[in-house]
Amino acid sequence: MKQHLGRQSGVQTVEVSLLEGKVDVTPKEDGQIDPAQLLKATYDSGVTAAEMDITARGKIVRDSSGSFALQVEPNRSFVLTPNELSKGLEALADTQTMVTVRGQLYKKPPGKKKAHPSASLKLLILEVQNKE
Asked: Of 1, 57, 58, 68, which is most buried, counting CB atoms within 10 Å of its CB?
């Protein structure tokens, strides 16, 4: 699995802890990692992912459907799953304020072996680390 994930675009390092059942993926400094592609690569390597947590930095925006999202690049954003932490960031929508959050991007559905490849990844904010 380490080699499988390490070959993905934008990945600098992959650390696997079998004892903790955890994989840490570090992006290259200017790397752009597609979380959906990492999830697919995990399953392609024969391993089932239980969840995917990320730390991301970006701006809070409203997408075309009116939902709030964390825009991490001009053409990439993650729709926010509503909770108390995301509601606290809504006032920052469409401002220049950058926020850094830690959140859960994926959790394996109960009873299913793997995610549907076309399932959209929504960001559940677990912690707001910084606002600038």
From this structure: 68
